[in-house]
Amino acid sequence: MRGLAGKVAVVTGAAGGIGAATVRRLAEEGAHVVAVDLDDDGLRATIDGLPTEAIRVRADVSTEDGVAAYLEAAIERFGRVDLHHLNAGIPGSFATLPDLTAAEFDRVMAVNVRGVFLGARAAFQRYAAQGGGGSIVITGSIGSLRGSADLLAYQTSKHAVLGILRGAAMYGGPLGVRVNAVAPGIVPTELFAGSPDVAGGRDDMSRRASSTPLRRAGTGDEVAGVVAFLFSDDAAYMTGEVVSVDGGASIVSTVRPSGGAGAWDFPAYDRALYGERPGVPPAG
Ligand SMILES: NC(=O)c1ccc[n+]([C@@H]2O[C@H](COP(=O)([O-])OP(=O)(O)OC[C@H]3O[C@@H](n4cnc5c(N)ncnc54)[C@H](O)[C@@H]3O)[C@@H](O)[C@H]2O)c1
Fold first, then answer.
1. Which residues have C-beta atoms less than 6 Å from ligand 1?
2. pLDDT tens, 95-112?
C-alpha cells in the first residue's frame, strides 16, 4: 500500500484482537507504531519482533490524562504522529433495556465514545501543530448500522462514533485530514471472552458467523488490512466513509427467507439454494 512507510501510527486497544493485528499490518507496511492499551502484558506481546520501531503505552483512552500520556510518549519517541487508529472498545453488558444500569451505560460510553472523541480531538490538535495532514480510522461495528435487542449501550456507542466520524471528516477535509471507519461483523477476539455462553457471546459466534454471506467469521488481520488501506494513499479520495468488514452480514435482507431471516438450518438452506454444487463450503 502506498504512503505508509515511515509514518508514525497510534493504535489504541492494541493488546490483542483487531488492534494488535493493525499494529502488525502497519509495521509490515513500514510504519512505526505507538501501541496503547490498559493491558501491558498484551502490549508487550503485540510489539515483540515487529519489523519497525514500536513503543507501548499503558493508558486509559477514556481519560484526558490517558490520551495526553500516549500522545506525549509518541512525540517523545518519534517527534510526530501521522495516523490514529481509535480502536479500543468494550462490549458492556448483555442486559436488556429494562435491566441495564445507568452506571453500565456510562461505562461503555466512556470508553467507546468519550475515548474516540478525546482521541480524535488530540489527533486534530497534533496534526495542526505539525502543519496539517494526518488520518484517523475509527473502529465502529455492524452495531453502528443495525439494531438488536441486546448490547444496547454498545450499539448506542457504536452509532455515536459515526457522529464523530462525520463531523471530524467534514472539519478535516479542508485541512487534508481524512477520517474513516471500519465496521467489523463477527471477529472472534477477547471482546466477548467474559460472556462465553450467552446467546451472541463468544461460544455462539461461529454459529452466527455461518449466517453471513461468506459463511464464516472474520479475522483481525482481515479488518487490519482494510484499516491499513484507509490510512494509505490508495484511499486518498475517501473520507467520512464507514466500510463494513463483516462477510456481508450487513447486506442481508431480514424479510426474505432466502436473505437469511429465521434460516438457522444453514445446511438445509444451502442445499435448497445450491444443491450439492462443488465449491460451496458446508455451512454451520
Ligand atoms: N470482535 C468483533 O467481533 C468486533 C465487531 C465489531 C466491532 N469490534 C470493535 O473492535 C474493537 C477492537 O475489539 P476486539 O474485537 O479486537 O476486542 P479486544 O477485547 O481483543 O480488544 C479491545 C482492546 O481494548 C482495550 N481497552 C478496553 N478499554 C480500554 C481503555 N479504557 N483504554 C485503553 N484500552 C482499552 C482492551 O484491553 C483490549 O485489548 C472494539 O472497538 C470493538 O468494539 C469488534
1. 12-13, 15-19, 37-39, 42, 60-62, 87-90, 111, 139, 141, 184, 186-187, 189-191
2. 989 999 999 999 999 999
